[in-house]
Amino acid sequence: MLDRKPKQLSGGQRQRVAVGRAIVRKPKVFLFDEPLSNLDAKLRVQMRAELKRLHQNLQATIIYVTHDQVEAMTMADKIVIMKDGIIQQIGDPYSVYFEPKNKFVAGFIGTPAMNFISAKLVSEGGKVWVVKEDMKLLVPEDKVERLEHLVGKETTFGIRPEDIYDKMYSVAPKEEFIVKGDVEVVEPLGSETLIHANIHGDDIVAKVDPKSRASSGDKMDLVFDMSMMHLFDPETEENVLAGTHKDAAPENL
């Protein structure tokens, strides 16, 4: 690259030159402000890996500003999530993904994003259920105490796409974890299939087994892993179940 002028360099090469110019100064802190935003998708993946290797080799602090949550999740040791200049949550990638503090963080982190369903919390037969029309999902006993103050109220139920399964590929699923959805779009991705479905007016996405044979227009039985459920306070949008998923396993399937 030494015999080329800047305009002759590709986007990735210009990024490497800029990083190299910063490295030779041996700073204690690097500041990257959306450094990969102008690169194509393939080059962004490559540069993410290079920047992570750089961080490991230099052992220097890097402050990395980005709107791309994939970059944040794959590269950061600690993530600070902000909205309108206000910090919403600080934590490692695992905690902000599995234990989001509020609805904004839950919807921002994750691809596809967390599903949100407007529902009511109902106590019936000594158990607590998430209910919307004929959708009726049993709340695990270890989460009930956190939710007692919301029983009888309209809330927002949240669950990630990978915690929803095709009943056909689940082992002996229980009826209290099954929901019928109207399939609208199917996206086969090879290693997984994304099912876009509608449940009584709420659109959801499920990451299911790639062998799933669902088609647009089907009425599909979906199994929800309720050990991974989230519930958001209707007034504050705080995640009432934050901190309850650290040891969660798909025990309902």
From TrEMBL:
Q: Which residues form the ABC transporter domain?
A: 3-36
Q: Is Transport found in the keyword set?
A: yes
**SUPFAM superfamilies reported for this sequence:** MOP-like, P-loop containing nucleoside triphosphate hydrolases
Does the keyword section mention Transport? yes
Note the InterPro entries from the entry: ABC_transporter-like_ATP-bd, ABC_transpr_MalK/UgpC-like, Mo/tungstate-bd_C_term_dom, NA-bd_OB-fold, OB_MalK-like, P-loop_NTPase, Transp-assoc_OB_typ1
Assigned keywords, A-Z: Sugar transport, Transport
Which domain of life does the UniProt lineage start with? Bacteria
**Which GO cellular component terms are attached?**
ATP-binding cassette (ABC) transporter complex, substrate-binding subunit-containing
Name of the protein described by the UniProt record: ATPase component of ABC-type sugar transporter
Origin species: Mesotoga infera
